[in-house]
Write a structure and sequence with these properties.
alpha/beta, two-stranded antiparallel ribbon, 4 helices, 12 strands, globular, metal ion binding
Length: about 180
């Protein structure tokens, strides 16, 4: 394990503890300012995620967005590949995907132009610390090579850190939305 890998692992461990505490203290259904942000993008194809463990839950906002345009959730194909996004609708049949995240039972893939991205930690320079698989970095690089793609980190304010250990392959966020504020980067 190289130095940066060890530093990232330590940063992740501390960030998971902060996220867990914030999650336990948050009122149920807390979607922060995400609905306000997405109101300006009605109908634009977007992807969010089915929250796992202590992630802040975008489900209420996903349901609202699905009334105006396509909403998808990420589907991991296999290690080392970018994510694909399968169309999700409120009440659709789901199955368990890799890492325990629920995904639509029937795949209906499309390319989103906005990605609501889960994270472990973020900074105000657009840095994002994820789970370490590089899925979102590969995906954002691919999508951004084709068209403008907006990456919105969705997190609890407590997940903010001053600085993150980043690599050249880490794709920046364009915005972070928390329960307290919208941070444009």
């Amino acid at each position: 394990m190289n130095d940066l890998t060890a530093v990232k692992a330590e940063a992740r461990k501390a960030a998971f503890a902060r996220r867990k505490a914030a999650h336990e203290a948050a009122p149920p259904g807390e979607a922060g300012h995400l609905a306000e942000v997405l109101a300006g993008y009605r109908g634009v194809p977007l992807s969010a995620y089915m929250a796992i463990r202590t992630e802040i839950d975008p489900l209420p906002v996903m349901a609202e967005a699905a009334a105006h345009g396509p909403v998808g959730v990420p589907v991991i194909q296999r290690k080392g590949l970018p994510l694909k996004f399968s169309r999700w609708e409120p009440g659709c049949a789901l199955r368990e995907g890799p890492f325990g995240a629920m995904i639509p039972e029937t795949d209906d893939f499309f390319e989103p132009e906005i990605l609501i991205v889960p994270l472990v930690a973020f900074d105000r320079q657009g840095g994002r610390l994820g789970y370490g698989g590089g899925f979102y970095d590969r995906t954002l690089e691919l999508l951004r090579s084709k068209r403008a793609t907006l990456a919105i980190g969705f997190a609890y304010a407590a997940q903010e850190v001053e600085e993150l250990p980043l690599e050249p392959t880490d794709q920046p966020l364009d915005m972070v939305v928390t329960e307290r504020e919208v941070i444009s980067l």
